[in-house]
Amino acid sequence: MILIELFAPAGILDPARHHQLGKRLIDALMGTEVAHAPAVMDSARALTQVLIHEPTAWITGDRHPVDTAQPPRYLIRVSAPAAWRKEMSAHAIERLTQALAETEAEAGRDPDRLLEQPHALVHVVGIAEGSLGMCGRPMGSLDLIQHMTAPHRDAIARIPTVDLPPGTVVDPVCGMTVDLHSTDLILEVDGIRYGFCNGQCRRIFADEHGVALNA
User: Fold this and answer.
1) What are 203-208's contacts with CB under 8 Å, separation 24+?
2) Is 192 helix (H, G, I), strand (E, B) or coil?
3) Helix 38-46 to helix 141-149 angle, to the nearest 10 degrees?
4) Per-residue pLDDT tens over the stretch 142-183
């Protein structure tokens, strides 16, 4: 469950560009390359939302109103489970800024200024465990991963592995390809060695198979 909020000066974006930029921000954050199983990525996208705000007042730190005759300023706030914040921050900041730069270029404005001037601020905010809710109940980060992946586990188990590079396996929770030589996130169950893209997928798999993890 990820919320992307874009704050932009009123009138800069027409309704059509609102929708275009909203889609672009989701694509930028989720990535156009397929890292996890496509069905899992679709579930993650379904839980990602964009809200676009046009404040009636926008004051900079020097207490002067933003000049609407000048190139617009932007603020993006990304709210996600705290357990995901650190890993996603650099990725989010880079890609969301680039998405804004593409929109600026299409509007005939200089996109490079977003990389050279503090005209696009990105805040990645971690929401504490138990403070996100869905379906009428609190949802922790593990609950969200369960929600996104559980309906697709059978399909993930059927992902062909014959063409995988040697020493790689498919994460049985999310479907991501994992290099066993570069990770210590490994479990062996019933003689089969599994690798995981992150500790949360490993935790979910261990819990479901009654495997105790070392503290």
Assistant:
1) 203/142, 204/142, 204/145, 204/146, 204/149, 204/173, 205/172, 205/173
2) strand
3) 130
4) 999 999 999 999 999 998 888 889 989 999 999 999 999 888
How far apart (Å, rounded) are the C-alpha atoms in residues 30 and 181?
Answer: 26
What is the residue type of 170? Answer: V
For the 2-134 domain, the top CATH level (class) is: alpha beta
- Distance (Å, whole) CA 156 – CA 100: 34
CA-wise closest residue to 69 among 109, 106, 120, 117: 109
CA separation for the pair 86, 58 (Å, rounded):
29
CB-based contact 58:74 (threshold 8 Å): no
Q: Where in the chain is the domain with CATH 3.30.429.10?
A: 2-134
pTM of the entire predicted model: 0.88
